[in-house]
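Risk register update: the risk of archive-format incompatibility is retired. Evidence:
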Amino acid sequence: MNLPLLDPPHCALVFVDQQAGLAFGVGSEDRQVLLNNSIALAKTAKVFALPIVASTSATKVYSGPMMPALQRAIPEVSAIDRRNMNAWEDDTVREAIIRTDRRKLLVSGMLTEACVSFLALSAANDGYEVYVVGDACGGLTPQSHQLALLRMQAAGVRMTSWIQVLLELQRDWTRHDTYDGARAIVEAFAGGYGIGLAYARDMIKPG
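Archived output:
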């Protein structure tokens, strides 16, 4: 059956400019929530064995390295530093994405109005199926973040959230190879839904 859903063998995760210097300017979302959502997304990619490509910019002059908490979630990933705002126009970043051999790209980063949009629009124009994880992206203001999402959506980029990505990749809680990892992420990062899962595990006993 060919379903119009994300599936692990066809997806790669791209982090663009997840850096503290840019997070200082984010006004579209609480910064800690944004960081937590990005970490949850990174952990989801690891559970489902998605290739991860990360890129940073202006690390020495303004933005700094990838945010440490996110880097700790993916210690095996080395961010590709670049000079221009559009990561797709950087040969090293673009070739790293191409080498994943995945045609569905999940994109998370900052700022939504610039580096996220430029990468997403460019990759989509080159034939990739691009999904922007909106709650793992930060914009300067709520309005400019939303307008950037609408701009991308109008160009064929799909919008999603980190929890939908996890649930879409899992889809069936009897998939035991990813069950424990996926459930642990939900319990740690999904608020009331995670609390409910933990309660069900710890308190509800079979009759």
